[in-house]
Write a structure and sequence with these properties.
mainly alpha, about 80% helix, about 0% strand
C-alpha cells in the first residue's frame, strides 16, 4: 500500500460533476477541505500518540466521507482500517500507526495539489 502515489488517490470528477460548472463551488469545497482536513489529521495523530483510541476512531470516522468526496478511495479505505483498528479490544498500535502514516502522507501531498487547483480557479474568476 505504501507504494501508492498521491496522484493515484485523487480524483475530482465527483466534485466537478456536482459543481456543474461552478468554480465558486469548487473553490469553496476545496477551501473547506484545506481548512478541516489538516486539523482532523492532527487530532488523529495526537490521539494515537496518547493512546486515545476512542478519539482516534471517532475522528477517523469524521475524516472518511471527506476523503471519499475528494476521490481518495484508497485513503478512505485505509482511514476506515484505522477507525476499526482503534475500536478493537486490543488495538495493534504498530499497524494503526503504519496505516495512519500512509493516509497522512497521501493526504498531505494532495493538500498541496488541491491548494494549487484552488489558486488556479480563484485566479480565473
Amino acid at each position: 500500500m505504501s507504494d501508492i502515489s498521491p496522484d493515484q488517490d485523487l480524483d475530482l470528477s465527483f466534485l466537478y460533476e456536482i459543481a456543474d460548472g461552478s468554480n465558486e463551488f469548487i473553490i469553496e469545497s476545496i477551501g473547506l477541505f484545506l481548512e478541516q482536513t489538516p486539523e482532523l489529521i492532527a487530532i488523529i495523530g495526537d490521539a494515537l500518540a496518547n493512546g486515545d483510541w476512542d478519539t482516534a476512531s471517532k475522528t477517523s470516522h469524521k475524516l472518511k466521507p471527506n476523503l471519499g468526496f475528494f476521490g481518495m478511495p484508497i485513503s478512505q479505505a485505509t482511514i476506515q482500517e484505522v477507525e476499526l483498528g482503534c475500536k478493537a479490544d486490543t488495538p495493534n498500535s504498530a499497524e494503526i500507526f503504519e496505516k495512519f502514516n500512509q493516509v497522512k502522507a497521501i493526504v498531505n501531498a494532495n493538500l498541496i495539489t488541491l491548494k494549487q487547483i484552488k489558486d488556479e480557479k480563484e485566479a480565473g474568476l
